[in-house]
């Protein structure tokens, strides 16, 4: 049953008609638990609240179904406005983005043009931009672009997914760039030809790459809600004498609130991934696919 629900939500998340219907009804049905709002103003208010509680943030303007150059330029403009709003408000947040929303599927040149504009603006403000990793089909091109950008910018990082077989070698290669990485397990549905099908294997590879990157002396964002992974990281940094300013824990907005606050009290840096925007439906469906137990929360909101 759980697998059936997961597949259903993944399919819905890719549906243009479902996305259009969701826009009509706004952030009701519980989506506001995971999405900070539809506007920059709403997202900045969410950041302020998290900052007051000792947490820093990465903001992500959600974008789905970018298929034209105009849409890609519009998405890039929203990233620029987000950076402007962060600077104006003086909140502690950097920016996360998906390169498909900036035109990666249209042309590499368009995507690079948009990325350079965004990184120039972020550098102007002394801010940082994280490139989200997408599905396996976009993995190599994303890493190629990241390598190219790192020749010009030191304020850009990328995400690496533990469930891919290739990841250990990617970690070794990126170590040469002193890359600032967010390490995740991986949430896309991938073929066993390219990804570990068993959770236990993914967990072991995740621990391996956390250890590799931290012991290499590189900044590491451990993005997980898994208490065992978090405890592993805490033990590793304590045993190896890794300074607290070399890593951070990252979690999603609206998930594991008590754990986030507990880590802050213990003195760890916690960054919350805060998405916003009108194209929230695909993101919301992916959160439900990851944990179908969240469906009960949604149903309670529908019948309120």
Automatic annotation (TrEMBL):
List ligand-binding residues for substrate: 98, 286-287
Q: Molecular function (GO) terms listed? A: nucleotide binding; proline dehydrogenase activity
Listed binding positions for FAD are 133, 161, 185-187, 199, 224-225
Q: Indicate the enzyme's highest-level EC class.
A: oxidoreductase
| Keywords, alphabetical | FAD, Flavoprotein, Nucleotide-binding, Oxidoreductase, Proline metabolism
Q: How is the cofactor bound?
A: Binds 1 FAD per subunit.
Q: In which pathway does it act?
A: Amino-acid degradation; L-proline degradation into L-glutamate; L-glutamate from L-proline: step 1/2
Pfam families, sorted: Pro_dh
Q: Where is the signal peptide?
A: none
InterPro entries according to UniProt: FAD-linked_oxidoreductase-like, PRODH_bac_arc, Proline_DH_dom, Proline_oxidase
Q: Which reaction does it catalyse?
A: L-proline + a quinone = (S)-1-pyrroline-5-carboxylate + a quinol + H(+)
Task: Tell whether Nucleotide-binding is among the UniProt keywords.
Answer: yes
GO terms under biological process: L-proline catabolic process to L-glutamate
Q: Which cofactor does it need?
A: FAD
Q: Is Zinc found in the keyword set? A: no
Q: Which residue ranges traverse the bilayer?
A: none
Q: Where is the Proline dehydrogenase domain?
A: 45-298
Under which EC number(s) is this enzyme classified?
1.5.5.2
Q: Which PANTHER family match?
A: PROLINE DEHYDROGENASE 1, MITOCHONDRIAL, PROLINE OXIDASE
The entry's protein name is: proline dehydrogenase
